[in-house]
Specification:
Arc Repressor Mutant, subunit A, elongated, about 5% strand, mainly alpha, about 250 residues, about 70% helix, 2 strands, 2 domains, Four Helix Bundle (Hemerythrin (Met), subunit A)
């Protein structure tokens, strides 16, 4: 059965208000442990009816950002409860002016996962999988003169390495963090140039995997992650000047 226009409109409104409330939670405007305003007040604040607001709250509850109870109201849960790899939550975090701490958290995750993925890709990857890695690197190299064009091939380079491991769990983890990588690379693309040293590390990773030298591939991946973190942290003050912070409150239209 097709959706009515009214249902589609309510869905769009719920997504928009979910974005606004989610961003306010992640940015700290709604503090952990705080109780959100009553439903009627939120409807007035965001300029919408109860139906899309309730849909938005259900989605935020599914992401484990809030708890809802008939007596306790709607309460912001501790960060330890949040689904940190949820694509929307990651997007809200990066929209709320990413800082060195957030980048450090992501880099620690990458260090725990990607070097081992490189080692297994070298060991287990098929010839076809290795060709895919090489092609992704070549697309990245071709786009390196314009950092804004490097985002997709860079994400694909890392994803193709994970797929080459032939480990179903590592592939699943890679899919879960692909949004985080895309957002980090999108932030990195705000730099004036794509660093030649990082491109060289990508090449060394690619060459080592194709040579089935897993230890070298893992070593170069660790070096790449360290280099990218350092260059991003150095560029953060300039990037913040270019980025617009989301408004703390606005009616949904």
């Amino acid at each position: 059965m097709s959706r009515s226009r009214a249902e589609d409109g309510a869905g769009t409104l719920s997504a928009r208000v979910m974005d606004q409330i989610g961003t306010r939670i992640v940015s700290g405007a709604y503090k952990v442990g705080a109780t959100l305003p009553p439903e009627l007040m939120l409807c007035e604040e965001y300029g919408l009816s109860r139906t899309p607001l309730r849909e938005a709250m259900k989605k935020l509850h599914a992401k484990r950002l809030i708890a809802m109870g008939p007596k306790s109201g709607t309460r912001v849960l501790p960060e330890s409860c949040w689904n940190q790899l949820d694509p929307d939550l990651l997007r809200w975090r990066f929209a709320s002016s990413p800082d060195e701490w957030l980048l450090g958290q992501l880099q620690e995750l990458r260090i725990a996962f990607e070097p081992e993925a490189c080692r297994l890709a070298a060991q287990n990857g098929s010839a076809a999988a290795h060709v895919t890695i090489r092609e992704a690197f070549e697309r990245l190299a071709s786009a390196s003169a314009d950092p804004s064009r490097t985002i997709d091939p860079d994400v694909e380079f890392h994803a193709s390495i994970a797929r080459a491991t032939q480990n179903i769990f590592l592939v699943s983890i890679s899919a879960a963090i692909s949004t985080a990588l895309h957002l980090q690379f999108q932030l990195a693309a705000e730099r004036e140039t794509f660093p030649a040293s990082e491109l060289e590390q990508h090449r060394l990773i690619c060459d080592a995997i194709l040579a089935r030298d897993g230890e070298a591939a893992a070593r170069h991946m660790r070096a790449l992650i360290g280099q990218s973190r350092a260059s991003l942290v150095e560029a953060l003050p300039r990037m913040r000047g270019k980025r617009r912070r989301p408004a703390s409150t606005a009616a949904v239209t």
